[in-house]
Design a protein that fits this description.
Strand content: 5-15%
Largest sheet: 8 strands, parallel
Shape: globular
Order of helices and strands: HEHEHEHEHEHEHEHEHHEEHHHH
Strand order of the largest sheet: 1-8-7-6-5-4-3-2
Distance between the termini: 28 Å
Number of helices: 14
Length: about 325
């Protein structure tokens, strides 16, 4: 496949592995890249910028194909050393940076001055247009079906991808709700030039998470996610579990909810424990509605081959609805 996204990333296929907290490690990123896609290491999964340097080297020892680094910048009382993580990526030869959250102009300028391309992930057209004006090289836009933080607008991918393709001039990557060749074909029909998969790549042999979590993703239906933090205007989509059910219950109780009321349930470290031990009661498991499409645990190479073949099949099949001369 050849699109502006494959040209930008230097890949065989315009398929990007999402930068996921605790999951975007060398095992998964290298497997995706080796299979022709674009693997991404999640910077803040590493405890320090120095650890990120080591993870980049480890990934490079596992693949000779391009891969990138995700840096999500969020407002917090005690922010991590974002610029030091950025420097670690730049100084160690990373050529593509996936950014999300806030995207300071000075970080963009610093990265681009070093020849780094920036793919900015966002959830709204207005944010995508702002990022385009600020000089990013591609947009990855999340429909409301996605795992993680889908924004507050509630716009699904079918409409969001079409709107973005209409309004954005730089390459567009569709994210959220992409889990098989059929949904991949739909994204291209809507005007995207690449797709981003997160939850689907969690359900692969190489994903560095416990088999209990992977099997839970396989068993889940499209109805088995919860929207949390909705009342706090920081909506997140997670797998429906006893933990996320408890969060929703607390949020919806009479009298309202403050973050401190649910903090003991939602900490990132508890989510890490859940992913690594397979204990679904330990913390949140982030997942998108695409779990409804997941029914196996292939290798990344098997998944990529299947995605591309099915995508081609569905695009060809759709073309048959139009006969010559009509």
């Amino acid at each position: 496949m050849k699109t502006r996204v494959t040209e930008l990333l230097g890949t065989r296929y315009p398929i990007v592995q999402g930068g996921m907290m605790w999951v975007g490690r060398a095992e998964l990123a290298s497997a995706v890249s080796n299979a022709g896609g674009f693997g991404i290491l999640t910077a803040l999964t590493q405890p320090t910028p120095e650890a990120l340097v080591r993870e980049i080297a480890r990934c490079r020892s596992m693949t000779d194909q391009p891969f990138g680094v995700n840096l999500t910048i969020l407002p917090t009382a005690t922010p991590p050393p974002y610029e030091a993580y950025l420097d670690a990526a730049i100084d160690n030869g990373i050529k593509v940076l996936e950014t999300a959250g806030n995207n300071p102009k000075e970080f963009i300028a610093k990265a681009k001055a070093s020849g780094v391309k920036i793919v900015h992930k966002c959830t709204a057209i207005r944010h995508a247009l702002s990022a385009e004006r600020n000089g990013v090289d591609a947009i990855s836009i999340d429909g409301f079906e996605c795992a993680g933080h889908p924004g507050e607008d509630g716009v699904g991918g079918l409409l969001l991808f079409a709107l973005a393709a209409r309004k954005i001039r730089i390459p567009l990557i569709a994210s959220g709700g992409i889990g098989d060749g059929r949904t991949m074909a739909a994204a291209f029909a809507l005007g995207a030039e690449g797709v981003n998969l997160g939850t689907r790549f969690c359900a692969t042999k190489e994903a560095p998470i416990h088999d209990n979590i992977k099997n839970a993703l396989v068993k889940a239906s499209e109805r088995d996610t919860n929207l949390i933090f909705r009342t706090l205007h920081n909506t997140g989509r997670v797998l429906k579990t006893a933990v996320s059910d408890a969060v929703v219950t607390i949020e919806n109780r009479p009298g309202g909810c403050e973050f401190k009321d649910i903090q003991h349930l939602v900490s990132g470290q508890k989510g890490r424990v859940a992913l690594e031990t397979g204990d679904m009661s330990a913390g949140l498991v982030w997942a998108g509605q695409v779990v409804g499409l997941i029914d196996d645990l292939p290798s990344c190479a098997e998944l990529m081959s299947q995605l591309v073949a099915e995508c081609r099949q569905h695009l060809v099949s759709a073309g048959r609805y139009f006969s010559a001369g009509r």
